[in-house]
Write a structure and sequence with these properties.
The chain is an alpha/beta fold. About 40% of the residues lie in helices and about 15% in strands.
Length: about 500
């Protein structure tokens, strides 16, 4: 093939033979090209992050073994991207008989049309070159997919127009699978395919041939078949039939990133953050905080863990954060604009539409749960970076002399802080500076620019709230921090029932 590849000018079967072309199956082609890349020490799947020691070795072994395989995992685990990246192991171009529906190999045609072309023209049969991108097709499995869509059907119009009998194999209108001959065909969400349609794939996987409506002609196909699916215990819409699972040689489990660092690398690769116009800065700590939101969701009892929490949550959240900074920079003139914790309430649309709740979560409300997840993520960051709260003397209680004592006492005196994502930085910093010792404590942990110190100060306030030392009220785009006990005493009373006593 290497010799033929360098002869793009080859346009006939005879010239192709003279160029030294030798047929090989698509699985051998993939295997040979993969072996060459492994020997060269190249990165095998560029753009796929976090799978180097888990999923990718499984895929490589399947390709080396010539296996059809399935990627099994929850949503947002790069299953489709990984399948599409397999085209990188196909030859840049391969020769096909010009005009054939099944991409016939010029030296080994499988269709009646291809064999007839060679019978008529011999070594003058026309040859064209098929690029690797045209050798990959995929189908999203839905309950309405038919056998005709995948495999094909008898076309009565073709039979009538060309005056052919139904016994002639040329009356067949081929589906997307045979039209991918000599390539890679992927089916996404395989369990959604109706069982009777899954049965139609059995012969292709095992005997590598195609039968349409019991047509007596068998067509041997040259294919790599790959699939993706969510775990069957989640996909209530259908299952993979047992005979089909038995014929898929390798099942490879995908997973979410192991930690926030790895997740942040994926998000940085995928999110659109380089914008024209206003200058914005999103430091590494904030990017990790966004990943902690997804991690909190994956650990939450209120979130349906069988459906998963997609990596798209963090990607969309980071894009919304950058947009909010861009909006503030344009409105206030701050340049560059830096993130604040108060910006996080603008990330809720990225969470609420992508996270499925269990019954208890639905009862609380998806937005309430989303705010809890954000709070848990902030608490995780606070607990790692700042002095411990509530475990020993000096942690913010009565008669406290520790690092948070002055802060809590200031709020206990009836003071409050109101922060907004629309404030210019000078106003935002001045509001934080009202709290005695807050910016100084933040500065002892964060040695960066004033914007980073202000973010650390706001993190302290939110951390104290998460540890029940301060209360917080969310009012549109503003957040106010107050003393916990006083706020609870001032809450409006409600009645326990008609005529019943008032309760707090």
């Amino acid at each position: 093939m290497a010799a033929a590849r360098s002869h793009r000018s080859v346009r006939t079967l005879g010239a192709l033979k003279a160029a030294g072309y030798r047929p090989r199956s698509v699985k051998i082609e993939l295997r040979d090209n993969l072996r060459q890349r492994i020997r060269a020490g190249e990165r095998l799947f560029p753009g796929i992050v976090g799978y180097d020691r888990t999923v990718i070795p499984g895929v490589v072994n399947a390709l080396l073994a010539g296996h059809d395989f399935i990627l099994l995992g929850l949503r947002g685990q790069a299953k489709t991207r990984l399948l599409r990246s397999l085209t990188g192991y196909l030859d840049e171009e391969v020769p096909v008989l010009a005009g054939t529906e099944l991409n016939d190999d010029p030296l080994a045609p499988i269709s009646t049309q291809g064999r007839r072309l060679i019978d008529e023209h011999g070594d003058d049969a026309p040859v064209e070159w098929l690029p690797r991108e045209a050798r990959y097709n995929e189908k999203l499995a839905t309950p309405d997919v038919s056998i005709a869509d995948l495999l094909g059907d008898i076309d009565p119009i073709k039979a009538a127009t060309r005056k052919l009998t139904f016994a002639d194999p040329e009356v067949i209108h081929f589906g997307i699978v045979p039209r991918t001959n000599r390539g890679i065909f992927a089916i996404n969400e395989l369990p959604d395919l109706a069982p009777r349609i899954q049965v139609g794939l059995l012969n292709i996987l095992e005997e590598r041939d195609l039968q349409i409506r019991g047509f007596p002609v068998r067509i041997p196909l040259d294919l790599l078949l790959v699939f993706s699916a969510n775990p069957e215990d989640y996909t209530n819409r259908g299952t993979i039939i047992t005979p089909l699972k038995d014929r898929i040689s390798s099942q490879i489990l995908t997973h979410y990133p192991a930690d926030a660092e790895m997740a942040a690398e994926i998000t940085a690769q995928e999110a659109w953050t380089e914008r024209d116009g206003a200058e914005v800065v999103v430091p590494r700590d904030v990017r990790l905080l966004i990943e902690e939101i997804s991690i909190a969701a994956r650990d939450s009892d209120l979130v349906d863990q069988t459906s998963g929490v997609s990596a798209r949550v963090a990607i969309a959240a980071l894009e919304l954060l950058v947009s909010n900074l861009e909006r503030r920079a344009l409105a206030t003139g701050d340049s560059p604009a830096h993130p604040r914790l108060v910006d996080l309430h603008m990330l809720l649309p990225a969470i609420t539409g992508k996270v499925e709740m269990v019954y208890e979560g639905e009862q609380q409300g998806v937005e309430v749960v989303a705010r809890q997840l954000v709070g848990q993520a902030v608490r995780e960051v606070f607990d790692r970076r700042f002095p411990e709260v509530g475990k020993e003397v000096g942690s913010g209680g009565e008669d406290d002399t520790g690092p948070y004592a002055g802060i809590v006492a200031w709020f206990a005196a009836g003071n409050q802080v109101e922060l907004s994502d629309e404030q210019p930085f000078a106003d935002y910093e001045a509001e934080l500076a009202k709290v005695p010792g807050l910016l100084e404590l933040a500065g002892s942990v964060e040695s960066g620019p004033p914007e980073a110190r202000a973010l650390a100060a706001e993190t302290i306030l939110e951390g104290l709230h998460q540890h029940l030392k301060l209360s917080r009220q969310d009012l549109d785009s503003r957040i106010s921090y107050k003393e916990m006990v006083k706020f609870q005493l001032l809450k409006p009373k409600r009645r326990s029932g008609r005529g019943g006593p008032e309760v707090n």
